[in-house]
Each structure stands twice: as structure tokens, then as C-alpha cells.
Amino acid sequence: xxxxxxxxxxxxxxxxxxxxxxxxxxxxxxxxxxxxxxxxxxxxxxxxxxxxxxxxxxxxxxxxxxxxxxxxxxxxxxxxxxxxxxxxxxxxxxxxxxxxxxxxxxxxxxxxxxxxxxxxxxxxxxxxxxxxxxxxxxxxxxxxxxxxxxxxxxxxxxxxxxxxxxxxxxxxxxxxxxxxxxxxxxxxxxxxxxxxxxxxxxxxxxxxxxxxxxxxxxxxxxxxxxxxxxxxxxxxxxxxxxxxxxxxxxxxxxxxxxxxxxxxxxxxxxxxxxxxxxxxxx
Length: 282
Known about the structure:
The chain is of the alpha+beta class.
């Protein structure tokens, strides 16, 4: 199944592809040029549509509104007994100084990271879910869904401040409900390591695509290790690492811009896995 609406240079599209892969048991995914191909025995869109209502009741969606609500180490450990660990380590990290929220939480101020996901999922449930998921995966993206906050992950939804006379934070927002929900479901693939989200740098986020077929477990391993692959390994696997700039949108945060492919690293130029800072211990 060619996912023709999902293009590797848009962070939210890559996340949507990976969210779908994670939700479909036994599915595999590969990238053919700019778009991915999904292999799964069944009707993926129908399966995902039927899955959505149950996801709204999951503890990782319903227990808290925002990672900033986690009350220190004690609160973090309490949540660890209440929600899947893969979600908790994507939401926040317990460090020696404090509990740090995911670096994929691009908006500050009153924006509530998890509550925003619930709102998107509820809005999607009120639509023809299968139709919205077909738009998300096959396209075209029509941007007909109003008053959405896609966490700043959608490069195509970014409002250029020079194009509007009003503050961009007050301008109407339009998005793609199905794609945003699936992107949210990719979060467990982006854990926090040493207090930082994998792939995140101060002004960029880097993520991989791969031309070889991968399941969710293989993809998770690739995300953690992509920055350490040398040129030979990168070519053999057909791995491309994409870098998206984090663009300041207002005083309260930023948004991702269009991503560009990075050159493969040679053994002498390989750095730390994205998100792990030099001098820190895992």
C-alpha cells in the first residue's frame, strides 16, 4: 500500500507513517524515494478507524493533560505504574535536577500537550474516520479541519508571520485530523535519553527513513542508532537522515520547518546518537 500523502520532508508525515506502523500488528514499512510503502495483511484504514475510540480511553491519553503536571520524581514513578512505560519515557524524563518534558512539546504557555491529543482524537471521532484516514495516508491533504494545534510538527501548516497582519498565534489554524492522530501515535518511537528526545538538537530535529522493510521494533532500533551508522551501513540499508529546523513562531515556542536530507556520516565524523549530549552518561 503506497502511502502517497506522506512525504519524508515533512516531520508530521513521517510521524504519521510511523504511528500507523506502530498501531498495525505485524506491519512493515519502507521508503521508496519520498513516500513510504506499507505492507500489512488486512484493511489498514478500516483497522485504524475501529481502533480510535478505544485509544481515547487509554491511560497515556486520559491520566494527565501535560507532562509539566508530573510532580517530580514521586509523580513520575507513580505514573510509571499507571501507564505504559514506552509512553511515559516519550512524555518526560526523570533527571537529577527535575522532570523534563519531551522536546517534541514545541509550544509553551498554556498549550497542553496531551490534552491537545485528546481534542484531536475526539474531533476525528466525530467525522467519517475512514475517510479522514484515507486523506491522511493516500491524500490529498485538504486542510479542511479548522482550529487545530498540530503541536507545530506540520511544516505545511506553518504560518509565515510576514503573510498576516495579526499575531500568528491568533491566526486560524487548519490541519489534517487523521494525519495528526497517527503522528501522535508515533511518540513511543521517540523516547527521551539523558533528558532529551532522541534526534533533538537545540535548533533542529533529525529523524531517519529506510528503504529496507522494517517492523516497529526494527524502526525503533534504527531511530536510536541512525546517527551512529557509517556511510557503508547507511547505503546498504538505504537510510536517509532528515533534519528539520526548529523555527521560533512566537514568544511561546516554535514549529518545525521543511526537512532536508543529511549526508551520511563517515566513521571519523559520527557523533552521539541524537538527543544524547556529550559527556553525559546513559
